[in-house]
Amino acid sequence: NAGVTQTPKFRVLKTGQSMTLLCAQDMNHEYMYWYRQDPGMGLRLIHYSVGEGTTAKGEVPDGYNVSRLKKQNFLLGLESAAPSQTSVYFCASSQTGYNEQFFGPGTRLTVL
Amino acid sequence: DAKTTQPTSMDCAEGRAANLPCNHSTISGNEYVYWYRQIHSQGPQYIIHGLKNNETNEMASLIITEDRKSSTLILPHATLRDTAVYYCIVRVYYGGSQGNLIFGKGTKLSVKP
Description:
The complex is a heterodimer of chains A (112) and B (113). Chain A has 112 residues and is an all-beta fold. Chain A contains no helices and eleven strands. In chain A, the strands form two sheets. In chain A, strands 2, 4, 5, 6, 9, 10 and 11 form a seven-stranded mixed sheet that branches. A four-stranded antiparallel sheet of chain A has the order 1-3-8-7, with no helix packed on it. In chain A, strand 4 (31-37) and strand 5 (43-49) form a beta hairpin. The model of chain A has no long low-confidence stretch (mean pLDDT 94). By secondary structure, chain B is mainly beta. Chain B is built from no helices and nine strands. Chain B has strands at residues 9-13, 18-23, 31-38, 45-50, 55-56, 61-64, 70-75, 84-92, 107-112.
């Protein structure tokens, strides 16, 4: 099993550009999450999903949108990138809201 | 905000036990203590969790004080590969929870030869 995978691994954007980060899991998990991590900080929750077709806001949702059209995929979109969105983005999944979360390897995004 | 307090950094000699403390004095009766670690900017990795009894798995042991206001993660025989940032997290454990983890800054553990 691949576990949780993220695409792409690295990306550089110019201010105002848009992009979509893809997270995929092959563990048939119900819950999926998007976090961001800034230098010297812990992870902060952006959005999450408790099942296919559902999404909800986390701690820092502004400037991001998400979709969960298929159970195994969770997409994070930036419609108009800003330098403040330069960060490392981690996706995670879990079977329930209290089971251990499995994390992907991260996407390093730089917005110039 | 994170509900835990951890030392910023710790050192440990290779082959010795690493004991990582965590204070969670405001923990509620239905909150569990979870430990994750993050090796060199990789995605965090689950280690162990517990409510009030001591727990052990293949990676580590978790000792929770009787009043549940603090805990210690023990890596019995630390190796260089255990060098990482260790996060202590308290969260409710029940069905239907959104499940998000609230990360603090963690403890940077450096295992030295």
